[in-house]
Amino acid sequence: MGTAEQREAPTESSAPHLAARRSAEALDRDIPAHGGGTGPAGHATAQEQPYYRPLWIEESARRRRMPDPVRTAAVRAVLIIAMTLIQAMVAFLCTLTGSWLAFPMVLSSVASTVVATWAALDVWVTRQVWNQRNGVVSAPSSTARSLRRERRRARAAERAQESIRRRGEAGQLSHP
User: Fold this and answer.
1) Which residue, 17, 35, 41, 80, shows the most beta carbons closer than 10 Å to its own?
2) pLDDT tens by residue, 74-109
3) Distance (Å, rounded) from C-alpha 22 to C-alpha 3?
4) Residues paired with 38 in a beta bridge
């Protein structure tokens, strides 16, 4: 029994669906259940149509999605680390075979290791910076929210003053 069936608690209203689901799983979808049991014009009757379960069931995420800058840094770090591991493996194999390519590969693997370390630290720094700038969103009384609200109001007031200043300059004929 799959996890989807384990999670569903059978109720009396879903009993016909469960019976239809069991029979539908047992049969091939293209072959009719009972020797062609079709109604008029070759169509299956309503009672004989099997229950098709969906391919997947939407479930809500347990954790929130990572912010875009953090996710970008994480993807970049994973790609760089993967390439570094491949490069280190090639350097190791070249060293074992005694190839002339071994020395340049070892040098570039060392450089790639430094870059991979930087990429991993970049994910951590980007996450910290994002949290510091945007604050904790889960707490309604978050200090960062009130600071953002104040900054938004200040920017709106600044824009209003700028538009008033521009309107005043448009009607001015000479400079004082």
Assistant:
1) 80
2) 999 999 999 999 999 999 999 999 999 999 999 999
3) 15
4) 44
